[in-house]
Write a structure and sequence with these properties.
This protein has 445 residues and is α+β, with helices and mostly antiparallel strands. It contains 21 helices and 13 strands. The strands form four sheets. A seven-stranded mixed sheet has the order 3-4-5-2-1-8-9. It has a two-stranded antiparallel sheet with strand order 6-7. A two-stranded parallel sheet has the order 10-11. The mean pLDDT is 92.
């Protein structure tokens, strides 16, 4: 017995009392069987769309996809998508059927779905309706296509990305025939919009099993991001690295917190390495790789149509991931002044993950990164001055010394800030003004 929200139970009961079959179906059933709380509940029913609208005439109903049999019913503020049992016609764009026809058979409806674990239906009266062995596959942690894998992927190529995404997020293995079909049909991903690819890719990166999936399905990743191909099997010839460039990338991605910006930065941080490799005294070097990685990253993220904030933050982290910051408060303040405290902490996380993806002998560097984080904590807790807005003087104060408005005002403030950061001055107005007079070469007014 599944615990369903009151609103879902209400919808199922109303359809049942009106003489129709009705079940929750898909991801909500899968998540419930996995012991997770579903984010939403989709309902499938034998009622035609117009009949569904009639059943819920006392509620707000939105015809969200009535052409494909879907209406959305709002109960107590909860939107519920209710879709008529249907059979899809031919797919011509590797994404959507040209038309659908309605059926009275739940089994026929579930036969059109992607994976067995997503083709299970449930209602409190009848329990599970599982025509394709989905519950057993969930129990065995297997992703298997409903019916013929080639047909499922040729109908909707995004299912290829969904399969590897589920494998990463759930930690499930892909069943053999389904796996063969993934690789066989991977070129169909070229027909899918970049926005949809990006959504699945980011979810994949944030999965708990991302290392295995990136290494096991690297050819599929290369299909959507061809720029990664040179990384495969690229020996770093370095005593500091036990992995090739791609395996290192996968390890770093796994080792960082599963936040999209951080996982993206980890994924792209070394993508430029194969383009700047050199050998000296038997040791591999990648001079300038951070800058090259930044350029490739910016190009790929633009192609994936990610928002500007995400793109800018990820590319900054990629560019800076190899920058050395002195283990001193002044250096930490200087970095946070030029960028931001948020970026500093994210960079430390990337550096820590990068270290974990190199060699087991990393304890010294990890301890150093812990000290760097502690320095930043101390700076922030002391409310230390590390930006112009924190200075006890402003542009008007500098102008009051007899300086004409212009660049010199900003330059003077920057010079004062640097002296405060370096510990040469206290952030006190009179002391700052006295120093400003020296910098400007002006006397008392």
């Amino acid at each position: 017995m599944m615990n369903l929200p009151y609103e879902v139970n209400t919808a199922l009961e109303m359809l049942k009392n009106a003489g129709y079959e009705a079940y929750i179906v898909g991801g909500c059933v899968r998540d419930s069987l996995l012991g997770a709380v579903p984010k939403d509940h989709d309902i499938t029913t034998s009622a035609l769309p117009q009949q569904t609208e009639a059943v819920f005439k006392s509620f707000r109903v939105v015809e969200t996809g009535i052409k494909h049999g879907t209406v959305t019913v709002i109960i107590n503020g909860m939107p519920l998508e209710i879709t008529t049992y249907r059979i899809d016609s031919e797919y011509v764009d590797c994404r959507r059927p040209t038309s659908v026809s309605f059926t009275k058979s739940l089994q026929e409806d579930t036969a059109r779905r992607d994976f067995t674990m997503n083709a299970i239906a449930y209602n409190p009266t009848d329990g599970l309706a599982d025509f394709h062995g989905g519950a057993e596959d969930i129990n065995n942690r297997i992703i298997r296509c409903v019916g013929c894998p080639d047909e499922r992927f040729q109908e909707d190529a995004l299912r290829i990305m969904r399969a590897v995404r589920f494998s990463s997020v759930l930690g499930f293995n892909v069943e053999n025939e389904t796996k063969k079909s993934l690789f066989k049909n991977k070129a169909l991903l070229d027909n899918i919009s970049r926005e949809r690819i990006a959504s699945e890719f980011i979810k994949l990166l944030c999965g708990k099993d991302v290392f295995r999936v990136l290494t096991e399905y690297k050819e599929i990743i290369a299909q959507i991001i061809p720029e990664v191909s040179p990384m495969f099997g690229f020996d770093q010839h370095s005593r500091y690295h036990i992995y090739d460039v791609w395996e290192h990338t996968a390890k770093v991605t796994e080792s960082i917190q599963n936040e999209p910006v951080l996982r993206l930065a980890a994924f792209f941080h070394d993508i430029g390495k194969p383009h700047c490799f050199s050998m000296k005294d038997g040791e591999g070097h990648f001079y300038g790789h951070a800058s090259i990685s930044e350029g490739i990253c910016k190009k790929v993220l633009s192609g994936l149509k990610l928002d500007n904030k995400t793109k800018d933050t990820v590319t900054q982290l990629v560019k800076l991931h190899d920058v050395q910051i002195d283990e001193a408060q002044a250096a930490v303040k200087r970095f946070m002044s030029r960028r931001s405290p948020e970026l500093y902490y994210m960079l430390l996380k990337l550096k820590r993950a990068d270290t974990l993806g190199q060699t087991p002998k990393v304890i010294d560097r990890l301890e150093m990164l812990d000290r760097m984080e502690k320095l930043a904590d101390e700076v922030l807790s002391a409310e230390a001055c590390f930006s112009l807005k924190d200075l006890s003087v402003n542009g008007s104060d500098i102008i009051s010394l007899g300086v004409r408005p212009g660049r010199i005002v900003g330059q003077t403030l920057e010079a004062l800030l640097e002296k405060v950061i370096a510990g040469e001055l206290k952030n006190e107005k009179q002391e700052l003004l006295a120093s400003a007079k020296e910098i400007l070469g002006v006397g008392e007014k």
